[in-house]
Amino acid sequence: MKNSIKKIVLAAASLVAVATLAGCSSKTVVSMKGGKITEDQYYKEMKKSTSGQSTLQTMIITKALETQYGDKVSTAKVTKQYNALKKQYGSSFSSVLSSNSLTKTQLKDNIKTNLLTEAALKDLKKPTQKQLKKQWKSYEPKVTVSHILVKTKKEAEAIIKQLDGGADFAKLAKSKSTDTGTKANGGKLDAFDNTDTSLDSTFKAAAFKLKQGEYTKTPVKTSYGYHVIKMDKNPGKGKMSDHTKELTAQLYDTWLSDSTVMQKVLAKVIKKANVDIKDSDLKNVLSSYVSSSSSN
After folding, report:
1. How far apart are CA 132 and CA 243, in angstroms?
2. CA-to-CA distance for 78 and 94, rounded, in angstroms?
3. High-pLDDT (> 90) share of the chain, %
4. Which residues of 189-210 are buried (b: 16+ CB within 10 A; e: fewer)?
């Protein structure tokens, strides 16, 4: 599945620092009529605030991840993912960054944080056979389909009748489909599997039932209208033992977006880092992770 800038921003949201806590000193941060604000004053106010404590928490976790898994996330790996996103968005790349309040450097930082977090997850949590078997129940391999979208059930039934009579699916898609994004290409969609979130679940369920070359014999209703779906390429589900790699990857993708799972993983990272917070006012900044670690 293609990644997205929005997805990367959300994935890194709990880890990427948006500010830094200044060290205690009398250095002036702001001067103005009637006085000044020093770093010491600013620090004292910041550490009282939720955002200040969140930033410190983020800095600790990020430093721990870099120390323990930095050797697994090279600059080349970050750059490769960054370039893939840049190519994916093309001329709209800069505007997408802007709409997500990101600079290019911040996006690279987010990518690195996500990769470090993923490395920690893979190191500290291994899929069990029971979990793989459960994932297998919903597993479907990547398939490629074409579809014809129309407004009414009657129109869809007429198209199915034409297909039954030997009509060419791609030609009908070009002349009948209301999906302007695919009709010119005979209704062909990008390949997808059971983890796809961009397609309607009813559409996917109907598609996965088709063998290669088959088309739906009854219209498939979604919020977009009525579809006639044709299976262009279906490798078949096969045996579970042939898909361990894909099943494992799917589990890790699910876990990465599961806050409960990731909190436990990060608790282990923090415990290994042997964190010693010197400022008594900030001693509880990692309490949610320490309690999570204890419960494990």
Report:
1. 10
2. 18
3. 87
4. beebebbbeeeeeebbebbbeb
